[in-house]
Write a structure and sequence with these properties.
alpha/beta; 4-stranded antiparallel sheet; 15 strands; binds adenosine-5'-diphosphate; binds magnesium ion
């Protein structure tokens, strides 16, 4: 019976990386176009650089598993990026090779090529036959092919042109299958050619009829190698090789198409967008779930992309400026890393992508800064977009405002996808800095409170208390600077306990008791006489004018909101804005509940005066005054 070997049935949970190669096609200037020179160039066999649209005095350098420059031949691309993975197919493992990139950048040239310069597909199929021929005795091999197109999220059989949308299924062993898809056994390369060429022509004919359909669909060739052991137990292994000419990665929404084409664009974007998420998940190794099921393309490739499969993505790019945006976005999708290098690309290309250097990242800003002439330009641009029919016919100059907006949006997207680790670290650092700053401010506050207390307490308390207090402060300072997160939180608590030293509080209460005997519970701020001996900053008069039980009720109400209120409810309190509400929530998270209203004084920025104003406003408001 047929069985899959362990490596190919998902037994190995650890996802492997997708190798990424970039191929830059030669510069192709048309006689009627002005020759601006290239905007991207190779540096060595793994690196390339592109002019930085943000700052013309810089280039952005990208690093890949392989870089194939303009002069690279079809044979070289095949040898370095594809041939090494083919022996795995004969051992029951899966593999996929796909060409990514904007329309016109060389995907079809790379995958199919021409009769003079055959591409990856014919070379790979030939090589599979060669490998089978050279195999050791003991196994029988059978090679078969299927050829399909994913168009508008529909799976269409290219070997049976009148077929309908086919379903994608998964069997018990997690193999992906397409019931009903034509599968042809092929006995030689010429046999393959006999089926493949007319099927490809079918697709090309459709493309001229249906408005560049070929650039909007994914062409997927499947080569399946089944080998069966000649002797008992007649083990059988199946290896699949997917060779995919992807839809153009350019953003078709720019073409301003309506109706069916708009739908096509959305569908293409879904599959390519999902592919980018899948590749990103596999290559960053951070994703819990690889989102294969989110599109037809990734669902189909599920057992042949990642896992134990061998996958290569050849990103095709074009050097002309009109491809700048699409090249930039294709590189960002594909890049393992990038680096901004402080040097101009070339003298003559510097002016083209110029942007105000300090341009905000915010899209609003990008749109909002539109002056009258700029708006006019946008209008004109939209007009030309409507006129054009093929995506590759549009000038993608990075100086167009809408392109800039998209670049900014793209950069945001990248920040959230490809650089999420780095971003996470930056966030941590920013958070730590913020915490340190907050602690410093608290420290200052505590110190001034402590000074106040010690001055007040100095008259009556023993001389021993002061050094004891100082000893408590010292470790906080050390912790503030060196402690990790949980310790920092403890460090915040410590001085608060110190600041509530009983003798000092009692002293303060004693001092005020004769003034306002009516009050049951006295606020910390009330209890402390200002250091300069001036009038107490608390406006104390209003409290004595309200009914005691109502006052207590209101206090309880406010306390409840402080302890259980949501951000919105907290903001509903008088004198509490967004920032304060968040600080209160933060305090609650660290310290738990406010046992009494006066604890609010412990929240950052809640000075005595503010607390006093807060109390007055909220109690009066709670009492409907
Ligand atoms: P895509 O499939 O990405 O839309 P094509 O493969 O159709 O792009 O390439 C667009 C044009 O550029 C074709 O005329 C193709 O022959 C040519 N071309 C692409 N890559 C190369 C290359 N590496 N060398 C020479 N010509 C190329
Ligand atoms: Mg093509």
């Amino acid at each position: 019976m047929a069985q899959r070997v362990a490596q190919s049935d998902g037994g190995n949970k650890k996802a492997t990386r997708v190798r990424v190669a970039v191929r830059l096609r030669p510069y192709m200037s048309k006689p009627d176009e002005k020759d601006e020179g290239p905007c991207v160039r190779g540096l060595d066999s793994q690196n390339l650089e592109i002019v930085n649209w943000r700052n013309a005095t810089e280039t952005v350098k990208y690093h890949f598993d392989a870089f194939h420059g303009e002069q690279t031949t079809q044979q070289e691309v095949f040898l370095s990026s594809v041939k090494p993975i083919l022996p795995h197919i004969l051992k029951g493992q899966n593999a996929s090779v796909f060409a990514y990139g904007p329309t016109g950048a060389g995907k079809t040239h790379t995958m199919m090529g021409s009769s003079e310069q055959p591409g990856v597909i014919p070379r790979a199929v030939r090589e599979v036959f060669n490998l089978v021929k050279a195999e050791d005795e003991g196994w029988d091999y059978s090679i078969g092919m299927s050829y399909l197109e994913i168009y508008n999220e529909k799976v269409l059989d290219l070997l049976s042109p009148n077929s309908q949308d086919l379903p994608i299924r998964e069997d018990r062993d997690k193999n992906i299958l397409i019931p009903g898809l034509t599968h042809m056994t092929i006995s030689s390369f010429s046999d393959f050619d006999k089926h493949f060429v007319p099927a490809s022509l079918n697709r090309t004919t459709a493309s001229t009829k249906l408005n560049q359909r070929s650039s909007r669909s994914h062409a997927v060739l499947l080569i399946k190698v089944v080998r069966t052991q000649r002797i008992l137990p007649h083990r059988q292994q199946t290896g699949k090789l997917y060779l995919v000419d992807l839809a153009g990665s350019e953003d078709n929404r720019r073409t301003g198409n309506q109706g069916i084409r708009l739908k096509e664009s959305g569908a293409i974007n879904l599959s390519l967008f999902t592919l980018s998420k899948v590749v990103d998940s596999l290559n960053s190794g951070t994703a819990v779930r690889v989102p294969y099921r989110d599109s037809k393309l990734t669902r189909l490739l599920q057992d042949s992309l990642g896992g134990s499969a061998h996958s290569v993505m050849i990103t095709n790019i074009a050097p002309e400026y009109k491809y700048y945006f699409d090249t930039f976005s294709a590189l960002n999708f594909a890049a393992k890393s990038k680096l901004i290098v402080n040097k101009p690309f070339t003298r003559e290309t510097m002016a083209v992508p110029t942007l105000p250097v300090k341009r905000g990242r915010d899209e609003h800003e990008a749109q909002g800064s539109g002056t009258q002439p700029q708006k006019k330009r946008q209008k004109e641009e939209r007009k030309t977009e409507q006129d054009g029919s093929s995506p590759s016919s549009h000038i993608h100059s990075p100086s167009e405002p809408s392109v800039m907006d998209r670049l900014i949006a793209l950069e945001k997207l990248m920040m959230s996808c490809q650089e999420k680790d780095r971003l996470g670290m930056l966030k941590d650092v920013a958070q730590s800095r913020k915490e340190i700053q907050e602690l410093k401010e608290k420290q200052k506050e505590f110190e001034s409170k402590a000074m106040l207390f010690s001055r007040l307490g100095g008259e009556k308390s023993s001389a021993k208390q002061e050094p004891a207090f100082k000893n408590n402060i010292a470790p906080l300072q050390r912790k503030q600077l060196t402690a990790s997160k949980p310790n920092k939180q403890q460090a915040v608590v410590q001085p608060l306990q110190v600041s509530q030293l009983q003798p000092l509080q009692q002293l303060a209460v004693v001092k005020k008791q004769s003034v306002c005997v009516k009050r049951k519970e006295r606020k910390l701020s009330d209890q402390v006489e200002p250091p300069d001996g001036k009038e107490n900053i608390m406006d104390s008069g209003w409290e004595s004018q309200v009914d005691n039980s109502m006052l207590e009720q209101s206090r309880q109400k406010i306390l409840q909101v402080l302890n259980t209120g949501s951000l919105k409810e907290l903001k509903g309190l008088q004198q509490i804005g967004d920032k304060k509400a968040k600080l209160i929530l933060g305090w609650r998270e660290i310290h738990g509940h406010f046992t009494k209203l006066e604890d609010l004084g412990k929240v950052e920025g809640m000075t005595e005066k503010r607390f006093s104003t807060f109390m007055k406003a909220n109690i009066l408001s709670a009492m409907g005054k």
